[in-house]
Design goal:
Elements lengths: L1 E12 L4 E12 L5 E4 L9 E3 L3 E6 L3 H5 L4 E7 L5 E14 L13 H11 L9 E7 L6 E6 L5 E10 L1 H14 L8 E10 L1 H9 L3 E4 L2 H5 L10
Parallel strand pairs: 10-11, 11-12
Antiparallel strand pairs: 1-2, 1-7, 2-3, 3-4, 5-6, 6-7, 8-9, 9-10
Helix pairs in contact: 3-4
Amino acid sequence: MRLVVARCSAHYTGRLAAHLPLATRLLVVKADGSVLLHSDGGSYKPLNWMSPPCSMAVTAPDAEAVARGVSEVWAVQHAKSDDRLEIELHEIIHDSSHSLGIDPGLIKEGVEAHLQAMLADQIELVGAGHTLVRREYPTAIGPVDILARDSTGATVAIEIKRRGDIDGVEQLTRYLELLNRDPLLAPVRGVYAAQEIKPQARVLATDRGITCLVLDYDAMRGVDNVDARLF
C-alpha cells in the first residue's frame, strides 16, 4: 500500500463528473489497484476514488499545468468503462509504501455472524434449489460471506449485513467484479441479504443487477413461527 500526503486537486469524469479543488489530502494506492482520496474529516469515506480493475499512469505536467504549480499528474483509468480520475499533485509532503501481507478478513461477531451461519444452513431461503459451496469464500480483497450455486448450477455470491446500506452494495459489487474474472465461477450473480435494507441501497443494488433479500432473524432462529401468524 502506498500512502501519499500531498497538496492536490482531482477531476473525475465518466458516469458522473466531480471536481476536488486544491487542498492537502491523503492519497491511498492499494495493491488491488484502487486509488482513494481522503480528507482529514468525513470519517472513513473517501472524497473520491477509483475501484479496480483500473490502471494508473504517472506523467509530467504540461506547460500550462507547470505554470499552475503542478509537479506530477496521476491518471487513473477504469478498465471496463470510461471512468477516469485525474489527480494533479502540486506538493508531495509524504510518500511511503508498506507491504501489509495477506489480510485474514473481518471476523464477524454477534447478529451478523449468526445470520451468516443460519443462512448457510437455510440456503433455500435464497431460492429453491440453491446449494451451499462454502462460507467465507476467500478472495484477494477479503472473504465473500457465502458462495452458493442456484438450481441451474450458476454461482451466487451473498453479502450479509444486519442493516443493509449503500456501502454494503459497493462491497458486494467489488467482490462480483473480482469473482467474475474467474472462468470457473463466472457468471456470478449477487445477493444482498440483511434484516433491513435501506431504500437507497435497494435502488443501487437493483440498478447493478443485485438481488435484495430481507432476512427474518426470529423466524430463522425458530423463535417466530411464520406459518402461525394471523397477519
